[in-house]
Amino acid sequence: MMKWFIGLFIFVLLLPITAHADNSGILNTKHNLSVTGPGPIHALTETRICIFCHTPHNATPNTPLWNREITHGVNYQTYNSTTFNVTLSQPTGSSRLCLSCHDGTIALGQVKSVTGGIKMNMELTGRPSLLGTDLRDDHPFSFPYSEGVSQNPQLKPRPTDLQFENGDVIQCTTCHDPHDNTFGMFLAVDNNKTALCLKCHGRTGWTTSAHATVTNTWNGSGPNPWPVNDRLGSHTRNTVAENGCENCHTPHNAGGPQRLLKYRKEEKNCIYACHNGNLGAKNIAAQFTKISHHPVEMAAIGDINGTPHDPTENPTQVTGHVECQDCHNPHTVNPSITAKAPFVSGIIQNVSGVDKLGAAVNPAIYEYQICLKCHGDTTSITAAVSRYSPQANPTITNRRLDMAVTNPSFHPVMGIGVNPNVPSLPSSTSPDQSMNASSRIYCTDCHDSDETPRIGGTGPKGPHGSIYPHLLRERYETLDGTQESYAAYALCYRCHDRTSILSDVSFQKHGMMGGHSGHLHLRMGGGAPCSACHDPHGVVDDGVSGDHTHLINFDRSIVSPVPGNTTPIYKDLGKFSGSCTLICHGKTHNNVTYP
Question: Which pTM does this prediction carry?
Answer without folding.
Answer: 0.91
